[in-house]
Amino acid sequence: MHLRKAEAFNQEELHYLSKFPIITLEKTTGQGTYGSTELGSREAAKGIKAINPNAKVLYYRNIMVHYGGYAINDNLINVKQPFLRNNSGETKLIRNRVQAYDLRDSSLQDWWLDHCFDMASYPEIDGIFIDGNIKALEPAFLKREIGEDNKADVKEAYAQMMMDLDEGVGPDKLLIANLIRARLPNSGLDYIQNFDGSYIEGFEAEANGLTKLEYVAKGIAAIQKAAREGNIICFSMGLGKALDVGLKIDDTRAKLEEGSYAQERLTYALAIFLICAEKYSYFLPHDGYSVNRNDSSVWLKDFPEFERPLGPPMGPAKLDGYVYTREFEHASVWLDIEKDEARVEWNR
Fold first, then answer.
1. For the chain, is the Cβ count within 10 Å smaller at the N or the C terminus?
2. Backbone phi, then psi, for 217, in 5-degree steps?
3. Within 10 Å of residue 22's Cβ, how many Cβ atoms?
């Protein structure tokens, strides 16, 4: 589960959340009730773990994008140069309205890392979810605004910070990064050693010379490799019709009913997940991360597929062209990424 809600969760919502093995509490969580994302996230985590102590709750931090709502932001006054600037001195470089952290600044590095270390020290927080990795690693992102050499320096600083984060958080807390993406060289796997695993979104795109078909095939191969090596995989796909903008992260709203596009999409997303899944793999079908004001049509809903007794895989997936098949103890999976078609047939 990956979500944000500005007000405190009620008991029904906490019981629902407690059923998920890994929960990421996004930016603004609880901010409206408790005054900050830090306190809101901690209170939500306490509520979840009071019901299910085994649930793993992650605190959200973006490595590149500066979001409001954090109490720690007040301390940025002590950072010499917290934000990247273009040639005109402007700092709102992301979508022309949000600042991007200047990771080259050592005091900014300390500010960001120390906050993660502090939040990870609380017993109710099981680890940190790091977002914005693609923005740090993608060579083209902000290159025009800050220049190629500066962008290369930002990427180098990012790599060092993630090593420092891994060392400072320690082995008892989880680090999950929104990392694996086919648009990156080697799909981002060169950096996976700093984390316990990767979140997956933006799975379907055309980028860096890859067609959508090539992009999806490359992404599947990268996820399979990471999963087989024991990394946690948190695989998400949207149930709405994909947005044809930006990084094509599908957060359009969906109506899930038999015969609907969303139901077909759920089967397709589930099939991709099962083709890749290993022991530490987890699945999230969604229609956006905000559950404020009844934004999501699937919030508090249980998918019947989740109650099926899948059983262990009988081996790795087989590939014939762009058609993948895989057998589980209680299910057979067939996936054609060229035709965007899939079947999951259950024998129990």
1. C
2. -65, -45
3. 22
Tokens of 128: 């940190």
DSSP 5: -
In angstroms, the CA 316 to CA 228 distance is 9
Place of tokens 């050499």: 149
Which CB contacts under 8 angstroms, 24+ apart, belong to 71-74?
71/35, 71/36, 71/37, 71/38, 71/39, 72/38, 72/111, 72/115
The tokens of 93 are what?
A: 């470089």
294: pLDDT confidence band, cut at 50, 70 and 90? confident
149 CB neighbour count, 10 Å cutoff: 9
**Which amino acid is present at 117?**
F
Q: What is the CA radius of gyration of the chain?
A: 20
**Tell me: the pLDDT tens digits for 182-193?**
999 999 999 999
Please report, for residues 4, 60, 100, 160, the alpha-carbon distance to residue 165 in angstroms, rounded to integers and kept in the order given: 24, 14, 19, 9
Q: Which residues pair with 333 in a beta bridge?
A: 326, 344
Higher pLDDT, 136 or 289: 136
Pair 234, 2: CB distance under 8 Å: yes
